[in-house]
Amino acid sequence: MQATAETLDGNRVKLSIKVDSETFSGSLDQALKQAAKTIRLPGFRPGKVPTKLVEARVGREVLREEVIRDSLPDYIREAVIQTGVDAIATEKVDVISSNDSIDLEVDVIVETRPKVSIAGYQGLSVKITSPIPTDAEIDEEINRLRNQFGKLNPVSRPASQGDNIAINIKATRNGETLDAYSVEDFVYEIGMNNVFPELDEKLEGSKSGDILKFNTSIEDEEDEQDEEDEQGGQEATIEVLVKEVSEKVLPEPSDEWAAEASEFDTFEQLRQDVSNRIAQNKSNRAVQELRLGVANAISELVTEEIPNALVSQEMGSRLHDFQHRLETQGVPLELYLQATGQSPEAFFEAMKQASIGTVRLDLALRTLSELEDIQVSEDEIRKRIELLAESSDASYEATKDNLEKSGMIDLVTWEIRKTKALDWLEENVEVLDESGLPIEISIPRESGEIIAGSSRGTD
Fold this sequence. Notes:
The protein is of the alpha+beta class.
């Protein structure tokens, strides 16, 4: 088979495909043999019908059309591989000649992946949350740890926010005690707001011996079965006996306390450890913010219209993956939409917008990789194929052979190039904190290497 490509306007290419008569006749003979295995004629055992009778019964012209129809996808795929055309959709197919005694000639017009502009990519800046811990964040974590070692001291003053109060709670409805909401000797911290909505307000300012009463809407197990209760529960009377008010006294942030509360000998060592842990967590979040910010920034530079063919392909892939995840949980898509309160229209529109964003980023990174001449080594391709082979439980040779025959090896190469392009961009954008000041950030890579972002600060 031979193929040539002619560039047309509007991201289109005409592929002229010629299949020699010998190859096409071989395909036709193979189709006759396949039909002979399934056709039934009186006097012949299944699969033993002579091909001449099959041809007379079915008609060679009909078989020829079937062979062309079935073979065209393979011919077009091979033509794309031969010509190196980056086709994303087939627009039109014209069979010029189809007589099996002469060469088969087909003209195919395909839509190609567009080239987009990313003008201004060299001056991009991205804002992220500063990974440097603040004194307030460190103090908050230290105080949380101190709070774990705090001691309760009874006080005679009125209760206030943060105090711990020993209380008895009795909940009744129509004279009947609601056991699920009644408790004795319950120690509660004012400000937690996790029992009754009115409780914290009532407790603030109370003293030992006070009895507080209020009504609130609550549900019990029987209420949950009632349709009326699902709309807000039924009213109950709450009686609270304040038994004791205590304030929590936190330990002083000393070396002695640090040794008791941690593996460190001094408070400064403990504080430094807290700072390091906060910095690590913030750095991890900052890297994610940077990656997302960089992807959004380069995508926003693309102003060209995104081809519907690419969006449809991305949506199809997303929907397939999403439905597969739902199926593994035994949840139909319709039930998921109902449970999440989404209409099918809103769900698919959100998926469409996400798909447009993914395609826009894909096109931008392809352009960036070409502008910055980002290349992929044979070793990188080999490692990626090894991962694919491992995930599919196949050999490296078989996986590589399948990729090459199907023309998917270019896709593997492009995925690596786009990843490297995004890495390049992350290392070359200006990184700013919330206030707009330049900061440095280290980016971990898959190899384990830490690549520091460019410093754009001032001395």
